């Protein structure tokens, strides 16, 4: 199974996905923001980076771009609750719209990361989403989109990853 770094500023999403992926047998490390994720990426090697796009501070898109520059970059899967996200070609290997179907995510994570994402499971995810359109040099989320929240930014609670 895969070694996964899971990043989301919503603590309930992070916890739910981490539990589900661990039940599938994956090794999961969690981070609640892009800066914490970068520290994990510099210290450990991951097969996959699964990150929300919209987060305070560093966006998932910026995190993906920085992860791509590492000596051993992980495959990148970005997630968002918004369907009109535009992604620059080549920055991600797959996109999943929230709420995330954990069976579909598991199908992607169960593929060999060295084989590339052109297999059936990853292509099915890419083809079933309406959100992957090529944009200019940067990915954009339109201004009318708002993150569903309780009115407070960030997670309702913080999950700290235990270094392995």
Report on the structure:
The chain is α/β, with parallel strands linked by helices and 164 residues long. It has a single domain (3-128), classed as Response regulator (Rossmann fold, 3-Layer(aba) Sandwich), CATH 3.40.50. Helices cover 30% and strands 15% of the residues. It has five helices and five strands; from the N terminus they run E-H-E-H-E-H-E-E-H-H. It has a five-stranded parallel β-sheet with strand order 2-1-3-4-5, sandwiched between helices. Helix 1 (11-23) links the parallel strand 1 (3-7) and strand 2. Helix 2 packs parallel to helix 3. The longest helix has 13 residues, at 11-23. The chain is globular, with a radius of gyration of 15 Å. The two termini are 17 Å apart.
Task: State the gist of this model.
With 164 residues, this protein is an alpha/beta fold. It has 5 helices and 5 strands, in the order E-H-E-H-E-H-E-E-H-H. The chain has a single domain (3-128), classed as Rossmann fold.
Rg calculated over all Cα atoms? 15 Å
What is the chains' assembly state? single chain
The CATH architecture comes to 3-Layer(aba) Sandwich
Structural class: alpha/beta
Low-confidence stretches: 118-164
Helix content: 25-40%
In CATH, the homologous superfamily goes by the name Response regulator
What strand line-up does the widest sheet have?
2-1-3-4-5
Query: Helix-strand pattern, N to C?
Result: EHEHEHEEHH
Q: CATH top level?
A: Alpha Beta
| CATH fold description | Rossmann fold
Question: In the residues, how many domains can be counted?
Answer: 1
Tally of alpha and pi helices: 5
Strand content: 15-25%
* β-strand number: 5
Mean pLDDT: 76
The termini sit apart by: 17 Å
Shape: globular
């Amino acid at each position: 199974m895969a070694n996964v770094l899971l990043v989301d500023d919503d603590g309930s999403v992070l916890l739910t996905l981490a539990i589900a992926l661990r039940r599938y047998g994956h090794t999961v490390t969690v981070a609640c923001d892009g800066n914490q994720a970068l520290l994990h990426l510099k210290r450990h090697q991951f097969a996959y980076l699964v990150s929300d796009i919209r987060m305070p501070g560093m966006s998932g898109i910026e995190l993906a771009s920085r992860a791509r520059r590492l000596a051993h970059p992980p495959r990148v899967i970005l997630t968002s609750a918004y369907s009109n996200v535009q992604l620059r070609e080549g920055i991600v290997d797959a996109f999943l719209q929230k709420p995330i179907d954990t069976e579909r995510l598991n199908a992607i994570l169960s593929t060999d990361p060295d084989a590339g994402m052109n297999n059936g499971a990853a292509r099915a995810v890419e083809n079933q989403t309406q959100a992957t359109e090529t944009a200019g040099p940067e990915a954009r989320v339109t201004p009318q989109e708002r993150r569903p929240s309780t009115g407070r930014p960030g997670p309702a609670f913080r999950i700290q990853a235990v270094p392995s």
